[in-house]
Design goal:
The protein is an all-alpha fold. It contains five helices and no strands.
Length: 196
């Protein structure tokens, strides 16, 4: 105890139980496995009465992470449906706006596919632009928060640990935006064609 040894100088031997604090190294699965083995030592190994581990905190953290992932997926699906609806409504308004021109095109012999293609492309472009805008906003939030988290937590959390989304995931997001726009515009043009 160094300079604080006087605090326990008058305490009898054996008054306080002996204890050891271990810090385990490795990834979470290795540490959890080692903690389970240490927990089984309580009562089985002479002199070991109790073993307290942080395994329960890992279990709570795992459940929290799973819950956050499901909540994120649910919110993402809701946003995706809302974007598809907005794109479909926008394309439907564009179809109404150009209904006379489209009727003339049909009378001149334009096929339904020829009439729909510009609107399908417009929906895809809207989806891509929406995904790029969302990615930009997300990066802005990341850049803002990463600096502050690093300042608060110091060496425990560095910017490299809080890395932004990798390029394949960004490309996937843009592709999903394009698909959402395509489906929304396809729904709008199909409904319009059936009403025409």
């Amino acid at each position: 105890l160094g300079p604080d040894a006087a605090l326990v100088a008058d305490v009898e031997e054996g008054f306080l139980p002996r204890s050891f604090e271990l810090t385990l190294a490795g990834d979470r699965t290795v540490v959890a496995r080692a903690q389970r083995r240490l927990s089984r030592m309580a009562g089985a190994v002479p002199g070991v009465e109790t073993v307290t581990t942080v395994e329960t905190w890992f279990n709570h953290l795992d459940r929290l992470i799973v819950g956050v992932r499901w909540a994120g997926a649910a919110v993402g699906l809701l946003v995706l449906l809302a974007c598809g609806y907005i794109i479909a409504t926008t394309i439907r308004l564009r179809l109404e706006e150009r209904s006379e021109e489209l009727q003339v095109m049909r009378l001149m012999g334009a096929t339904e596919v020829f009439v729909r293609i510009p609107f399908l492309l417009e929906g895809m472009i809207q989806g891509v632009l929406g995904a790029l805008l969302a990615t930009g906003l997300l990066y802005g939030i990341y850049a803002f928060a990463a600096v502050r988290l690093e300042a608060v937590f110091g060496q425990a959390v560095t910017a490299s640990q809080l890395g932004f989304l990798p390029a394949p995931q960004l490309a996937y997001g843009v592709a999903v935006g394009a698909l959402c726009g395509l489906i929304g515009s396809l729904a709008a043009t199909t409904r319009r064609a059936s009403n025409a």
